[in-house]
């Protein structure tokens, strides 16, 4: 049995490089040599103990690498050495939602997702990763792996932007200027909107302005609902995207939107405090309140096309990189406030 290295969380706030079994590609499977894996909020919550996970836990779902081995019956275009972004969350391809192309709503999503026998987790923080080729999206030869790993968060935001149905000239309010908020800003600009970004942190407000926001706003200093109303001559924004995990902000979002506007609840809510809403406001103004979760295949395709063609720059979201051997340091760095993405690299 061959082994490979993996960066596992052994218990809360304790991560370590361990040896586990290296997978072997069977018929129709491809073995990926992972070269970069970004530490998302999901993994950070496992490390910090904010959410309970079975331990040991092997996270990692924002992944780029190269094809290492190809099983029997795989199309020739998936050749050894090819650089790819990997969709790590599985779908069934057999449920109604998969058939409709809405694979983020797959009834079996992630259920085939356990990658290694030894422990729970998606398993991207390892040297190798076994996939079916429908999970692979080619990356440009020259693209650094740590950039390619950000195809997944970009794909998530592309899915969200679809829900927002932004039109040319719309006013879009993005609440929160973490990586997800700023990616929404970048994509909303490409859709021809003017964008107002709400964020408490001054450095992040500055970054939003540098990326092209029309206006930023500190919600601790200014009432954001009346600000947005004034900014739109009293009518409200066509689109509000709420990225932080705070229910009160979802209520405020509904107050900021114009007739027929769209509110997208992008982040999940912790705690999941119920909202107070006026059903009549929804009835009379025909606003739409929706969510966005997970990236679908179409979102991955568009994300990698945008990154490969240089249509969007995501390089400024990589704060720093750590080798897999320093998985503990990588996690400690990732959970520090003000981080966008810490990326673990495997050379
Ligand atoms: Zn993620
Ligand atoms: Zn399905």
Q: Any descriptors?
A:
binds zinc ion, 347 residues, Quinone Oxidoreductase, Chain A, domain 1, 11 helices, Rossmann fold, 6-stranded parallel sheet, alpha/beta, globular
Q: Count of helices?
A: 11
Q: Report the bound ligands by name, code or SMILES.
A: zinc ion
The average pLDDT score comes to 95
Secondary-structure-based class equals alpha/beta
Order of helices and strands: EEEHEEHEEHHEHEHEHEHEHEHEHE
Number of domains: 2
What is the gyration radius calculated from CA atoms? Answer: 21 Å
Low-confidence stretches: none
CATH topology of the largest domain: Quinone Oxidoreductase, Chain A, domain 1
The helix content is 25-40%
CATH architecture assignment name of the largest domain: Alpha-Beta Complex
- How far apart the termini lie comes to 22 Å
Largest sheet data = 7 strands, mixed
The share of residues in extended strands comes to 25-35%
CATH superfamily annotation of the largest domain: Medium-chain alcohol dehydrogenases, catalytic domain
What's the total count of β strands? 15
Q: How would the global form be characterised?
A: globular
Assign the CATH class of the largest domain: Alpha Beta
SSE diagram, text form:
Layout: E1 3-11, E2 14-21, E3 30-38, H1 41-48, E4 62-70, E5 83-86, H2 96-99, E6 128-131, E7 136-138, H3 145-148, H4 151-164, E8 171-175, H5 179-190, E9 194-198, H6 202-210, E10 215-217, H7 224-231, E11 237-242, H8 247-256, E12 257-265, H9 279-285, E13 288-291, H10 297-309, E14 318-323, H11 327-334, E15 341-345
Helix pairs in contact: 4-5, 4-10, 7-8
This protein binds zinc ion (2 copies).
One zinc ion binds next to helix 2.
């Amino acid at each position: 049995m061959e082994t490979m290295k993996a960066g596992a969380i052994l218990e809360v706030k304790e991560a370590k490089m361990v040896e586990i079994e290296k997978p072997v590609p069977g018929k129709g499977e491809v073995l990926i040599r992972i070269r970069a894996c970004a530490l998302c909020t999901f993994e950070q919550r496992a490390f910090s103990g904010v959410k309970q996970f079975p331990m040991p836990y092997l996270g990692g779902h924002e992944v780029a690498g190269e094809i290492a081995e190809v099983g029997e019956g795989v199309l020739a275009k998936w050749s050894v050495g090819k650089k790819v972004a990997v969709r790590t969350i599985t779908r069934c391809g057999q449920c109604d939602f998969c058939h409709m192309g809405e694979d983020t709503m797959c009834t079996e999503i992630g259920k085939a997702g356990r990658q290694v026998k030894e422990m729970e987790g998606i398993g991207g923080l390892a040297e190798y990763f076994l996939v079916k080729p429908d999970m692979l999206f080619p990356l440009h030869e020259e693209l650094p792996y740590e950039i390619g790993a950000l195809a997944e968060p970009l794909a998530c935001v592309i899915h969200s932007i679809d829900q927002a149905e932004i039109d040319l000239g719309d006013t879009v309010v993005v609440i929160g200027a973490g990586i997800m908020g700023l990616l929404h800003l970048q994509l909303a600009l490409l859709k021809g909107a003017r964008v107002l970004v709400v964020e408490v942190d001054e450095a992040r407000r500055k970054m939003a302005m540098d990326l092209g926001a029309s206006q930023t706003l500190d919600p601790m200093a200014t009432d954001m609902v009346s600000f947005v109303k004034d900014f739109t001559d009293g009518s409200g924004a066509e689109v509000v995207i709420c990225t932080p995990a705070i229910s009160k902000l979802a209520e405020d979002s509904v107050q900021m939107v114009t007739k027929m506007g769209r509110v997208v609840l992008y982040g999940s809510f912790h705690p999941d405090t119920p909202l107070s809403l006026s059903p009549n406001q929804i009835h009379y103004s025909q606003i739409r309140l929706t969510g966005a979760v997970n990236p679908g295949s179409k979102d991955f395709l568009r994300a990698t096309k945008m990154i490969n063609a240089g249509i969007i720059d995501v390089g400024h979201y990589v704060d720093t990189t750590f080798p897999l051997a320093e998985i503990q340091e990588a996690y400690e760095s990732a959970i520090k406030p003000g981080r966008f993405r810490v990326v673990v690299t495997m050379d």
